[in-house]
Amino acid sequence: MELVIDEEFGAKLDGAVAAAEAARPRTQQKTLGPSSVGGCREYIRATVAGDPGIPERPRGVDPAFIGTVVGDALENIFEQYLGATTQIECKVTLPKSGLVIAGNSDAVFVDANIVTDLKGCDSFAEVLYDLKRHGFLNPKRSGKYFKYAVQIAIYVLALVQAGILEQGATARLVFFERSGKAKKFLVIPLEWDALMKAIDLAEDRLGDVVRVLNAGSPEPARWGLRDQEPSLCFYTQCPFRIACWGDSEHVPTGEITGEHEIQLIEDFIVAREDEKGVKARRANIKEELRPIAGGITPKIVAPGVPDNDGFILSWRNDTPYVTPK
Length: 325
Prior knowledge:
Blueprint: H1 7-22, H2 25-28, H3 41-49, H4 63-82, E1 85-86, E2 89-93, E3 100-104, E4 107-109, E5 114-121, H5 124-134, H6 139-142, H7 144-161, E6 170-177, E7 186-190, H8 192-214, H9 219-223, H10 230-235, H11 241-245, H12 259-289, E8 295-296, E9 311-316, E10 319-324
Parallel strand pairs: 5-6
Antiparallel strand pairs: 1-4, 2-3, 4-5, 6-7, 8-9, 9-10
């Protein structure tokens, strides 16, 4: 039977996902939110200044979307089975700058004086490697983890200021692998002192933004606030990416029209997508192999399998090896 792919129906499903994502409150938010305070200072300046941005392209069912959907479902589970309170409206007044920031927390365990924030990731190994090298409180090195720390610190301080939590409240960043391979959570605690240090560092960076705003946002000063490389800005589709990097070498200006060149690019894209599929299939097969202990097969005759007298399955460091007998 010939394999048939229904592109038209798939496009309809893609459109529904894009519409749902565009309608999310956080997507429509035009003001500075807790998730942005620890991020790129030029993004913060442009947001506060109300600079015009450009809309991002529909993302489809990408890792961020999967993380959002799974996170919403997990919040409901924590609420139903653990008594957590979810999506509490938070409004914090930052101690030094007096800036007011509003947002909504994930799951809050009021009796335990704990705020949680769910974060999807590719692998726990990547998270642990980054945190062991740079920790949370290094704005230049920690990257997204510094943003995570500032975000959850804002939720904690807001809930303390509102009288919902008590002074000294703590936080838990709860990571889950979007692939589902880990089958558990990785929970990283952040104590009160570390949370307040994250806010203090964030306010220092906000001071840089305020100085540029007060000076009228001249271009040389604005460029000093750019904390990301253009490749990342374009990859994440920052709404201010053209304003920051429109004249950079990252944005190609020439047109590729040659038939041969276009064919080569098409071949490269197809090969890249095929490679992604092979990697995903291999990872899935690895999971299915887990119940099978090491051993020797009889001769295997199948398309794509080289001539053999059987294969040996062995396991080393949680990795399967299949070698000819």
